[in-house]
Amino acid sequence: MHPMLNIATRAARKAGNLIIKNYEIIGSIKINNTNNKNIMNAIKITLENLMIDVIHKAYPQHTILTKIHDNIVGKNRDIKWIIEPIDSIHNFIKRLPHFAISITLIVKDRAEVAVIYAPILNELFSAIRGQGAQLNGYRLRSNNAFDLQRIILAVGTLFSKQEDNQEYIRKINRIFNQKHIDFRRTGSVGLDMAYVAAGRVDAYCDIGLKPWNFDAGALLVRESGGLITDFSGNDNYKDSKNIIAANPYILKELLLNMRKYQ
């Protein structure tokens, strides 16, 4: 195993073990509008600290970017670990098992290693640049659908007052109506992209994402034979923050239809 993939896996599993131990307990905690944010942040901080500890014990000079701690700058700024402690904490609090831990290793601005771990489902997705993607040790390939008829499209953000979000929703609705596309809204960016890599869903699109949301999933999709672009078909999704992931045929069809209904 790649030594840094080994560390990423160890960190994800350590955080996952803590989640598993407390999965049933979370249902007994009274969460309301007053304490909701504090409880969620406390969970994220605890998980982040566990993973930071594992990574820095192995690589004390590496930089780490997290959702809560932000940028923990090490002596080696060319190597950065990006951590998402719990992707879809709302699902976790409701005891819906569709949530995950994501870790990405970035070397000189290029993703080299990715891990997405769903602890309750006991599914660990991993990828190494140039060496493919796996689920629990088995090789992944994105599916080979050729057109949009009857595909399953996973979607992210659906509700917002922002005008760009409203336009995005209008485009997606038109495609649904025209092509009889089914859709899924699960709440976990990382798992939705991992499912594209595994061929469980045919495509994924979303807006307003941050690096810790999509970096791990992006490497999984590419290493399984899929492609990722922004809504214009360019490789600018990190700046535009809108993203489509699919196999090459479905991606092309989605982009053509999004342009058609502009």
TrEMBL record:
GO terms for molecular function: inositol monophosphate 1-phosphatase activity; metal ion binding. Keywords: Hydrolase, Magnesium, Metal-binding, Transcription, Transcription antitermination, Transcription regulation. GO terms for biological process: inositol metabolic process; signal transduction; transcription antitermination. InterPro entries: IMPase, Inositol_monophosphatase-like, Inositol_monophosphatase_SuhB. The keyword Magnesium applies. Its EC number is 3.1.3.25. It comes from the Bacteria. Mg(2+) binds at residues 86-87. It is an enzyme of class 3 (hydrolase). Its cofactor is Mg(2+). It catalyses: a myo-inositol phosphate + H2O = myo-inositol + phosphate. Gene3D superfamilies: 3.40.190.80, Fructose-1,6-Bisphosphatase, subunit A, domain 1. This is Inositol-1-monophosphatase. It comes from Candidatus Pantoea edessiphila. The lineage of its organism: Bacteria, Pseudomonadati, Pseudomonadota, Gammaproteobacteria, Enterobacterales.
